[in-house]
Amino acid sequence: MKPKVYVTRIVHEEGLNILREKYEVEVWNSDDVIPHDELKKHVKGISALFCTIADQIDSEILDAAGENLKVVATMSVGTHHINVKDCKKRGIQVTNTPDVASDSAAELTVALLLLTTRRCLEGIEAVEKGEWGKWKPMWILGTESVNRTIGIIGMGRVGFGVARRMKPFGVSRILYNDVAPSSFAADIDAEFCSLDQLLTESDIVCICCALTPQTENLIDKAAFHKMKSNAVLINTSRAAVIDQEALYESLKNGVIHSAGLDVTNPEPLPKDHPLLTLDNCIILPHLGTNTSETRASMSINTALNIVAVLDS
Predict the structure, then answer these.
(1) Strand ranges across the sheet with 281-283
(2) CATH class of domain segment(s) 4-99+293-310
(3) Residue 41: left (phi > 0), alpha (psi -120 to 50), or beta?
């Protein structure tokens, strides 16, 4: 009998076809999150679970799957939705897809940066509301990237991708902070510095770091007050890196100029959330990896991770 693989969402066929060659594959036939109770029913006796970042893979799911479960493979970079500690205790491998989404995330970060600094969303809304009139010298004025200092928190694949893409825009300096200097940062003349220096000297701050105990609430009220009053903050990493309440107060009171977010807590953000009342805050619905190319690659890599574990 072939090992069973359960897939919690409709994903690209490229990955599913890899699995179907070797295993019995069942897919939750929806683009929506599978209810937790339904997932418990479907995982009984499986050898591998192909999940997404929206699925909560807790001890209840592991119990329901039983002793045949060998691998929980998530189609995401993050694994915070999985009880990794319990998986380790049970001898279940946990795999992710860290390498394929970097370009997509870096590209989205730059797009969000430009949307925010050039106030594009306000312009779109003005057109839709019929407010686009004759040329006005002081109407919806954004800021340019040329001759600005950009600070990047986390010079990993995404952070480097952002820096590399912003270099041709004519930024004057690229500062970065990480646990240690990066050897490839020298290729783009990026300067390693302390977090305090980055916050006080940067015109644009991009958060590209992983969420760890050290980075949780890294950008808090004190950090916002170190930033320039005309600074722009961009976060495409993890929402918990920022103290969201402090962000709201800082934007509302002019401590910083504006922010662009691709990540929030919670997701989706409630319609009545205070951040949505601010004109100087652009929020996207977590689009960092939303390209056909990246999602296909993530599907393939997740499938290959399952094969690597089950065939070992």
Answers:
(1) 191-192, 173-177, 149-153, 204-207, 232-235, 258-261, 281-283
(2) alpha beta
(3) alpha
Catalytic residues: 286
Tokens describing residue 17: 């076809």
| Beta-strand pair 173-177/191-192 | parallel
The residue type found at 219 is: I
Tokens found for residue 209:
């770091």
Q: Is the confidence at residue 195, as pLDDT, over 90?
A: yes
- Smallest CA-to-CA distance from 129 within 121, 138, 117, 141 is with 121
Q: 8 and 30 in contact (C-beta within 8 Å)?
A: no
**186 half-sphere exposure, CB direction, 13 A CA radius:** 3
According to DSSP, the β-strands at 204-207 and 232-235 are: parallel
Condensed to tens digits (0 to 9), the pLDDT of residues 66-118 reads 999 999 999 998 899 999 999 999 999 999 998 899 999 999 999 999 999 99
Q: What 3-state class would DSSP assign to 5? A: strand
For residue 26, pLDDT beyond 90: yes
Q: What is the mean pLDDT of the chain?
A: 97
Contact of 287 with 108, CB cutoff 8 Å: yes
SS3 254: coil
Chain Cα centroid distance, residue 137: 37
Paired with 233 in beta bridges are: 205, 259
pLDDT (tens digit, 9 = 90+) per residue, 229-251?
A: 999 999 999 999 999 999 999 99
pTM score, whole prediction: 0.91
Side chain identity at residue 97, one-letter code? T
Specify which residues 206 forms β-bridges with: 152, 234
Q: Do 208 and 109 touch, CB atoms closer than 8 A?
A: yes
Look up the CATH architecture of domain 102-283: 3-Layer(aba) Sandwich (3.40)
Domain with CATH 3.40.50.720 in the chain: 4-99+293-310, 102-283
Q: Are 175 and 169 contacting, i.e. CB atoms less than 8 angstroms apart?
A: no
